[in-house]
Amino acid sequence: MSEEVCVLDATALLRIGDFLGVLPATYARAELGPVEFHVHPSAVEYAAMIPKRYGIEIIADGEEVYGDYTFVLSATARVSSPYRPIFMTQAFYRDVRLPMPMVAPRPELELDDSQKVAIEGDVGLAPFARSLGSHEFWPRDRWQQLVDAYHDVRFILYGVDGIDDPQYVTGANVTPFFGYTVEQAAISVRDLKTCLISVVTGLSHIAFAVRTPNIVLSSQGPWGNQPDGIRLAGDVSTLPVSLVSAELYCVMGGDRGSRVVSRPEPGKRPPPVLTDIPVDRLIPGLNRGQGVWIEGFGMVPNDLQFLRDHHFRALGLMA
């Protein structure tokens, strides 16, 4: 007999990031036995990317459905705080009554490459989002200045047809990606040659799922951010172009090298290298492009102020 795993707060499923957030816990439950995954009809397009090997039966049956296990999106978000940085893919494990992983697990996707769109690019741009405050958007003129500064880089501008502006950023080196499915967008993000630059939006979570480097302009805590993101924190509306450009330069192989963090997979800790590392040694490590594995917290993002304010016992530095 199958167990029912349901998602409450169905309106949130209009956002792909929330949907991806519940997938690792759903997969973990499916590995223990047959699962019926009940979703709002609006999420069926997303559910088509669930790998068939898990044998999960997708059932689209409305908004207020409770099962053996129910994801309550708004309640689960409260487990994260600046003092306990838990990402959504970790927190949802409690809703299926399984131990929370030490590291935020990646939502595995199965993509149909026959759906690939013949638009290739080096860097993706995702300036749009549905649920951000005005201080969480990067101004349009700064996106344009960034594009203008890299004439030899092919940019892809991602947006939703009929909602976002395909002329938001323009140039001979910019190609709009509008009017395609979420799966086609995921394939495109996966195949970017360099990285995705985004605000906190669904494509950022897709970049995490498909292992594409992501420069994230974010004023949020860990819950809404993607765990592998190269996070530029603060009031996004005031971030200078030079800061974003510097990060892009590094990811493209500039003289400081890549800032992309190599993180362990869930359940696989790196071997201990250094212990009881003082903050004044952690911060130079991050500036050299290293991530820090914190016991009980997983991989800490490049948030230097957070490290200055809080002392942790680190299990090691990772290049």
- CATH architectural label of the largest domain: 3-Layer(aba) Sandwich
Low-confidence stretches: 255-302, 306-319
Strand content: 15-25%
Main sheet summary: 6 strands, parallel
Q: Helices and strands, in N-to-C order?
A: EHEHEEHHEHEEHEHEEHHEEHE
Provide a descriptive summary of the structure in words.
By secondary structure, this protein is of the alpha/beta class. The chain folds into 3 domains: 3-96; 119-251, Glycogen Phosphorylase B (Rossmann fold); 279-318, no CATH class. Helices cover 25% and strands 17% of the residues. It is built from 10 helices and 13 strands. Mean pLDDT is 77; it is low at 255-302 and 306-319.
Describe this structure in a few short sentences:
By secondary structure, the chain is α/β, with parallel strands linked by helices.
Any chance you could write out the topology, listing elements then pairs?
Blueprint: E1 3-7, H1 16-30, E2 35-39, H2 44-47, E3 57-60, E4 69-71, H3 73-76, H4 88-91, E5 123-126, H5 140-148, E6 155-158, E7 174-177, H6 182-190, E8 195-199, H7 202-210, E9 214-218, E10 230-233, H8 241-251, H9 279-287, E11 291-294, E12 298-300, H10 304-309, E13 314-318
Parallel strand pairs: 1-2, 1-4, 2-3, 5-6, 5-8, 6-7, 8-9, 9-10
Antiparallel strand pairs: 11-12, 11-13
Helix pairs in contact: 1-7, 5-8, 6-7
